Amino acid sequence: MQFGIFSVGDVTPDPTTGRTPTERERIKAMVAIALKAEEVGLDVFATGEHHNPPFVPSSPTTMLGYIAARTERLLLSTSTTLITTNDPVKIAEDYAMLQHLADGRVDLMMGRGNTGPVYPWFGQDIRQGVNLAIENYALLHRLWREDVVDWEGRFRSPLQSFTSTPRPLDGVPPFVWHGSIRSPEIAEQAAYYGDGFFHNNIFWPADHTKRMVELYRSRYAHYGHGTPEQAIVGLGGQVFMRKNSQDAVREFRPYFDVAPVYGHGPSLEEFTAQTPLTVGSPQQVIEKTLSFRDYAGDYQRQLFLMDHAGLPLKTVLEQLDLLGEEVVPVLRKEFAKNRPADVPEAPTHASLLGGARKGADAGREGART
């Protein structure tokens, strides 16, 4: 199972000091957080993609390429890549290039984002959001798997004898997660292709997450990719920790109360009771995270949101120390207990390459017989 962090890259004033970091400071902080993630033994760093204030990560491949050059083991991902407003040809080429530079330590999460105005900024209609996600990914899927593509659709100009370059590393495209909070069409899309489904359950109650994951698992089996239990599932999470739970609540409350995504709404206590948000001790984080398996089944990737709402970099790095030293080692051990042998591990470039080679060998053996 993979553990990591994802960032939305918001530039938010610190409510305890009133200071707002500069864009440069926030970008550099995201890099420092990624480097810290590798240092403390996490597996994944994922960056969002936004094209509007108060966010800075408008160019994920630029950031991830820079991080790739400064890390050795960390798997680099997105949270999300906007499949609706990016040209699929550009996605195919940008992420294949990143895949080569990072020696395969790349996957990505397709999503529609949560900012309506981005659609007209990139010449698209938000009313076509789901249709754009479906058509654009169908093209991207082909561009990474076919050397020469002829294609015509509704939302971009046709392609004639087109080859995207560079080709995927070792002929193996980056693994794709389809991220969604509430859209069954995206769960269906992930299942159809046999891709991963990531439910960012930081805002929704467990019963909603359960329904979405079960839909994906059942449709994954329907399309013949394996049993429902073999589907590839990722979950989001959100934590703030101190050694003493009362200290965690006291320190995090002012950030929660004015956070852009949920401030001025439910109380901290209400939100933690109704959603996966955990504010407390490392042991409380462990217990809450382990409970995700009760409604999502055995899953492959757990990412935490930790650097938002104006939290200073020093505090975030302290959180990562606690996550890497006290939480994740226990989670690895506990999630491994009673995990069925036929539940696959999280995909990596190495595992996907091995699967491709086995398939090729089986094909050659079949041809000989």
Automatic annotation (TrEMBL):
SUPFAM superfamilies: Bacterial luciferase-like
InterPro entries referenced in this protein's UniProt entry, alphabetically: Bact_Lucif_Oxidored, LLM_FMN-dep_put, Luciferase-like_dom, Luciferase-like_sf
Gene Ontology molecular function: any one: oxidoreductase activity
Name the UniProt record assigns to this protein: LLM class flavin-dependent oxidoreductase
Ranges annotated as biased composition (Low complexity): 9-20
Biased composition (Basic and acidic residues): 358-369
Pfam family, one: Bac_luciferase
Annotated region described as Disordered, given as residue ranges: 1-21, 339-369
EC number: 1.-.-.-
Keyword Phosphoprotein: no
Keywords, alphabetical: Monooxygenase, Oxidoreductase
Keyword Oxidoreductase found: yes
Enzyme's top EC category: oxidoreductase
Ranges of residues in domain Luciferase-like: 1-294
